[in-house]
Amino acid sequence: MSTPLEPLTLTGSLVRLEPLSAGHHDGLVDAVRDGQMWDRWYTSIPRPEDMAGEIEGRLARQERGEMLAFTAIRTTDDVVLGMTTYYDWDAAVPRLEIGYTWNRASAHGTGTNAESKLLLLTHAFETLGCECVGFRTQWVNHQSRAAIERLGAKQDGVLRANRRYRNGALLDAVLYSIVRAEWPAVRANLEHRLRHRVAG
């Protein structure tokens, strides 16, 4: 599958998104241990012992043109924060989704995730020419839903009993999106949220 999703680095004031590589393994293990990020039954965040397989899996999907995987790194001290991806590229629209995202617990609320989304959205709309960028999360993941809604994304709907959680329970997926006409307001909102953090 041919896509324009070529590995690249996106750099902001708080965070740098580097192409995922096996060299990020130890930093990602340290990040996932910060807050035991895998210990949430409604997520698919990898355990430390599964991190190598997670990296290999994402890179294999990237090789097939199914996703573009990033490692999030804090710019002030080069600490690895977590992972995120572009996926579900559809050239006919064009559109894609941003997801498979997690960040170390101590980074929550520091602005790094908001800046990551600003970097990814800017590249999607202004370089890749996307008409729409989608997000999805689980109905029960209220923290993730709130974070997506703070971006300015609008809820498109709920896919009920879409698949199963690791414990076998049925999962309801909540779909959100931002379309090109909404992007200027979303960008202004994110830049406003980040302004005092960067200044500080």
Describe it.
With 200 residues, the protein is of the alpha+beta class. The protein has a single domain (10-199), classed as Aminopeptidase, CATH 3.40.630.30. It is 32% helix and 32% strand. The chain has helices spanning 25-33, 51-63, 112-127, 142-151, 183-199, and strands at 10-11, 15-19, 67-74, 80-90, 95-103, 132-138, 154-164, 170-179. An eight-stranded mixed beta sheet has the order 1-2-3-4-5-6-8-7, with helices on both faces. Helix 3 (112-127) packs antiparallel against helix 5 (183-199). The protein starts with 9 loop residues before the first strand and ends with a helix. The mean pLDDT is 93. Pfam families: Acetyltransf_3 (PF13302).
Keywords, separated by commas or semicolons:
200 residues, alpha+beta, Aminopeptidase, 8 strands, 32% helix
Mind sketching the topology for me?
Layout: E1 10-11, E2 15-19, H1 25-33, H2 51-63, E3 67-74, E4 80-90, E5 95-103, H3 112-127, E6 132-138, H4 142-151, E7 154-164, E8 170-179, H5 183-199
Parallel strand pairs: 5-6
Antiparallel strand pairs: 1-2, 2-3, 3-4, 4-5, 6-8, 7-8
InterPro entries: Acyl_CoA_acyltransferase (IPR016181), GNAT_dom (IPR000182)
Pfam families: Acetyltransf_3
Organism: Occultella glacieicola
CATH level 1 class label: Alpha Beta
Average pLDDT, rounded to a whole number, is: 93
Could you tell me the radius of gyration in angstroms?
A: 16 Å
N- to C-terminal separation? 44 Å
Shape: globular
Task: Spell out the helices and strands N to C.
Answer: EEHHEEEHEHEEH
Question: Helical region count?
Answer: 5
Largest sheet: 8 strands, mixed
Low-confidence stretches: none
Strand content: 25-35%
CATH architecture: 3-Layer(aba) Sandwich
CATH superfamily annotation? Gcn5-related N-acetyltransferase (GNAT)
Number of domains: 1
